[in-house]
Design a protein that fits this description.
By secondary structure, this protein is an all-alpha fold. Helix content is about 70%, strand content about 0%. Helix 9 runs antiparallel to helix 10.
Length: about 375
Amino acid sequence: MIWKMIKEEWRKNSEMYRGRSFAAFPFTILFFSLLWNWSAVNYSTITIETLQNFVYGLTIFLGFAVGAAGFSSRDAFKNILGRTNYLVFTSRTLPVSSKRLITEFVVKDVAYYSMMVLIPLIAGFLIATGLSQIHVIPVAAGLFVASMAVSTLFTATSSGIKVRKFLGYSSERLNPVASKSILDIYRSSGGFMKIIFSVGLLTAFYWVLVLYFPVTDMFLLNPLLSYSVIMGLVGLTVYNWLNRFDELDDYTHLPLDRSDVLKAKKEAFLYTAVPLGVVAVLVSGIFYSDNLILAVSTVASMTIYNMAVAVKVTGLSPNESLFHANKFLEYMIGVSIILVPQLYMSVIYNPQLLLSMTALNIFGVLIGLKVYRE
């Protein structure tokens, strides 16, 4: 059963991430782990002990993520995944106990994700820092297994946990379909924390580069402004999640057409992505507060404009469309119309550029609002 579960996991991942090219995933992890650790050792003020603690922290998070996401968490129990089913649930139809299946599922996850993620991650660290840090291997492995076991145990019992209602379909603030899209994220594995975590991880990585890599002083002269532009791009992640749990066909029994559903998705996006970007910039003002007001307006403008491009290029299927090279190229060209000049001006910014950057921000907002009202 364990081998069958491994094949099932591979089939699921490879189908989601473009077939056999998914086999390159561990090599990608190895490359980025090696690149990060080697750069930190040679070009930053970060100590090896800090890098070691970072590996431990990432290992713990990986264990939690595997235990929840690999198990499909509450998504499967709450029927958010539709007709999707896995071998781990076959105790309902086959003469196999649920305890045995969950135990074998945990063993499968330890083997599968150790090969796919954990080993490449640690290998990149050891190659960059030397074999003197080999003691990291047993500690990281233990942390991974322990955190994954805790996460799996919590997930297996989470179907009975009541979810606090903060937004209903009858909300006067939003269109019912927009409310549903936000509720789907809230009810899925990790809720909004998965989005907040991704933004937090990007924020932490960016400010580590700014604060601990002296070489960044050459091309990040105004780090908060540059960060606000980058954060505007992160809004695409929110749009992907808003379209993750449903399709247009799910609304065919309702008096709604494609434009109605698309308008609701845009409304849900503005309700979530813009405040998220603004808060991220305000929090980052702790590290570098110069040009804070301009940075807030920039992230709002870039986020709204990003929505317009995503809607025009991908419609209601961003998760599939952006895997196609032509669609991805269209998206990048569309975003670059605002992104490139904003990044350039953020790097060389001085008070004389305030009017130009403000005008560019207003242009981005106007384009975004035009698409929103269509």
